[in-house]
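Target chain:
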Amino acid sequence: MTFASLHCQPASAKPGAFHHHAIAGLLAGLGLILSAPAMAKVEGDTITLGAAVSLTGKYSTNGKNTQDGYTLAARRVNELGGVKVGGKAYQLKILFYDDESTSARGAQLAERLINQDGVKFVLGPYSSGLTKAIAPVTEKYRIPMVEGNGADRNLFTQGYRYMFAVLNTSDYYLREAINLAAEEAQRAGKSPKSLKVAIAIENDNFSQDVRDGVVEDAKRWGMQVVIDDKLPPELNDMSVTLVKVRALKPDILVVSGHEKGATLAVRQVAEMHVDVPMLAVTHCDSAQIIEKFGKGAEFTVCGSQWDRTLRYSDRWFGTAEQYAQRFEQTFHYEAPYQAAESSASVLAFVDAFERAGSFDPDKVRDALAASDLMTFYGPLKFDQSGKNIAKSMVLYQVQGGKFKVIAPTKWASSRIIYPAPPWSQREAASK
């Protein structure tokens, strides 16, 4: 294989000093070949993508997930014969640098990839913050970037033409919960307009985006938002909101406050025995609510970007489950959604190269803008801002002590249990 995996500036290097080295174990395990940065462009039968990812610093875990997702996709494309452009097959390789989990380094490395290494196509970093640092650089040089790990919808209000995101933006994290509640109301012969929504969020950009998406879809269905609270900064008490929930009896309570918010919501709803037909939160999987609260977490609904049980499939990996198995066989840990969306970013480029029939960056950019592709990760189709408008967020529900995918309903493995049983009924059943 002619696939290169490089990164620069490890934690032990002096600031500003660049040096390249092979990620020895990874390269050996994948049979990858080291290539000099001078080759980091379309030459011969090789097309090089560039990526600055967080291999050290606070994002290093998810940075490795991102790198592994990119690596696996490129390897798989090469195994299947590479990228077919103009009657010729090209192999993929990726030039990696370590952005050290800092925006300044990310922007600097984007400049290096483009100006020194000759990279014409960029894969995004991990996190919205680093994506915000790199996007102005790729835009300035009219270099297409496909990213899978920057969800802040503010990224898509800047007028960028060369950035495309395969993931859902943060305002979509719990929209599907509203849509699912509407579907269940219709199934029960009720109008969605009869439903009441309660919202409690942390006062940060991510949670505000989640709130705005929920409000927009609630209004679209004609639902009434009866509670719209901001959680206290210390995130250790939401009892005031829950007292209002008892009084106003909303049909869905939406909570967004990262892992702390998920933990707080599940704990206090259980402790106070607050009956609400649907409790929908963000980050409930990473908050480990099942492990922490057991039966107290039952019926909680949580948003996620992807799951291996979804019935998506493509010509490269097959099903989502087959992707997950291949990932685990290669890297020896379970495939997180950060890796899956990173792999999908590579596939978006491959599809665009083949449809463009060219490696001209503007033609590839136009092909990306016209994408209409199904992948193991989900459908890819971008609007004018570069957002993926075809894929839905995944919704889990805790059922029998496990996360079960309940939405999007077309691809789900289980049906939602709605309304959630009242606490009196749950206690009676456990006796």
The domain at 172-304+392-430 is CATH 3.40.50.2300 (Rossmann fold). The longest helix spans residues 60-79. The chain has 13 helices and 19 strands.
